[in-house]
UniProtKB/TrEMBL annotation:
GO terms for molecular function: DNA-directed RNA polymerase activity; metal ion binding. Keywords: DNA replication, DNA-directed RNA polymerase, Metal-binding, Nucleotidyltransferase, Primosome, Transcription, Transferase, Zinc. Belongs to the eukaryotic-type primase small subunit family. Its EC number is 2.7.7.-. This is DNA primase. It comes from Ectocarpus siliculosus. It holds the Pfam family DNA_primase_S.
């Protein structure tokens, strides 16, 4: 039974104060022990403590309310139009709760931060999902005519899960993960974050650990929130390099000329491919004959026979094998170059460069659940929710330090409770004035949320409000 006091102390009403940022030094990597091994990782009592003392309601309200100023609302014709500040913006946001015994409740909404906090603590959801902003409070959706209840805006979101890499990861499958396969998530964040910022101009991007085996991305820029379903689909398709199902032997097709975004991604991914995919310490693609056969199946028969014979003799490292494979494909490409000119473009074999890109991308490029991204009314798990299977908090990830992020060191509810107890025991009476967040590892994650996401978001909101005030003043003066 948890021993941390379950009442909300005064310190819990304060904002996080003096929290330090995430260490920039790479941590010692864990051995990949599952939180399932922690007998006190999750329980209703621990969840009650978490919602009473540690969940960052104030920061979540500030984010999801956007100071109650939406990017756009539809006019009578349904076309998005800029609007002025609207006091009930937060109340039109949909939440869903999954409570004990897997009871799922949709169309939850809250007038303000106080009601949000009260309802979460009353219902004790095992899972919280966040949806769109609608034309009216979601709880009233049955009280209006069909068609009157419509999603207005919503963050552009992405869901990346390790189960979608089961055809290429060799260390784990299904719900199981380890630090070897977590590198797939690291590579996905690096490629997606740069692409969203450089190719689409988005600035306010939040990356979140799903609590078990994946990552979520929330793009909160005005332009992203106002995207139609078609626009969201277009962005998702832009990153849809890996496509197809388990029955397809080839899931990546790179066209010539190679797009600049793919060249940039390759520069990031090829070194990680060499480090995490081909080595024995990684996925073992070129360190185990049972794995490299799949790769050799992508090259011409004569190249395959040459390399199989050479590699069976042993002596070459995975990096050596990759160099030999690239070299043999280059030789083959030069021989095919003259023949390819006489073929129709559709019949020409991939060039050595195309082949190289396709191999690296099939094993490293982000794999999205596009259906999550395409629909404005699709709900996604809330940051700072808790995964009931692992007990781990869905904490933010700093994309600038994503290679240092270790999912196995993310705190469970049981660990957070023990950190509170330890702090109280060591500091005595002085703990009464200290927020529970500041007694635990939650301190650094909430501060990171502030520093890497909320601060920039609210800087943009202040600029938008200032511009609005100046426009109103100009119109009044002219009148």
């Amino acid at each position: 039974m948890p021993t941390a006091a379950m009442e909300v102390d005064k310190g819990d009403q304060e904002m996080v104060a003096g929290a330090s940022g995430v260490e920039s030094k790479a941590p010692v990597r864990s051995k990949g022990v599952s939180a399932d091994d922690d007998r006190e990782a999750f329980s209703p009592d621990l969840l009650r403590i978490y919602y009473a003392r540690l969940f960052p309601y104030e920061q979540m309200y500030r984010w999801l309310g956007y100071s109650n100023m939406p990017a756009s609302l539809p006019d009578s014709s349904g076309k998005p139009q800029p609007v002025d500040e609207q006091a009930d913006f937060f109340s039109k946001r949909e939440f869903s709760f999954t409570i004990e015994d897997d009871v799922y409740i949709r169309y939850q909404c809250f007038a303000d931060q106080k009601e949000f906090e009260q309802q979460v603590q009353r219902k004790q959801p095992h899972k919280i999902d966040i949806g769109a902003i609608f034309t009216l409070p979601p709880k009233n959706h049955l009280a209006v005519k069909p068609g009157a209840f419509q999603p207005v805006e919503r963050e552009l979101v992405f869901d990346i899960d390790l189960t979608d890499y089961d055809d290429v990861r060799t260390c784990c499958s299904g719900a199981k993960i380890c630090n070897r396969c977590w590198s797939y998530m690291t590579m996905a964040v690096e490629v997606m974050d740069v692409g969203l910022r450089q190719d689409f101009g988005f600035k306010h991007i939040l990356w979140v650990y799903s609590g078990r085996r994946g990552v979520h991305c929330w793009v909160a820029d005005d332009a992203a929130r106002a995207l139609t379903n078609e626009g969201r689909g277009a962005v998702a398709d832009y990153f849809g390099v890996v496509a197809g199902n388990d029955n397809q032997s080839k899931k990546v097709n790179v066209s010539l000329p190679i797009h600049p975004s793919l060249r940039r991604a390759y520069e990031t991914l090829e070194p990680l491919f060499l480090e995490h995919i081909i080595t024995e310490e990684g996925q073992g693609l070129l360190s185990d004959p049972s794995h490299w056969g799949k790769l050799l199946a992508t090259v011409p028969e004569d190249v395959r026979q040459t390399l199989e014979g050479r590699w069976k003799m042993g002596g070459s490292s995975p990096a050596d094998k990759w160099e030999e494979l690239v070299e043999e494909m280059e030789k083959k490409g030069r021989k095919q170059q003259q023949l390819a000119k006489k073929m129709k473009p559709a019949d020409r074999p991939p060039t050595p460069e195309q082949w190289r890109y396709e191999v690296v991308f099939e094993h490293t490029y982000p794999r999205l659940d596009v259906n999550v991204s395409k629909g404005r009314n699709h709900l996604l798990k809330s940051p700072f929710a808790v995964h009931p299977k692992t007990g781990r908090v869905c904490v933010p990830i700093d994309p600038a330090h994503v290679r240092e992020f270790d999912p196995f060191t993310v705190p469970t509810l049981g660990q957070l409770q023990r950190q509170i107890d330890k702090y109280d025991k060591e500091h005595g009476e002085e703990t009464k004035s200290v927020s529970s967040i500041n007694k635990t590892e939650m301190k650094k994650y909430v501060q990171q949320f502030e520093d890497t996401f909320l601060t920039g978001l609210y800087k943009g909101i202040r600029v938008k409000k200032r511009d609005r005030t100046e426009r109103i003043a100009a119109v009044t003066t002219d009148f």
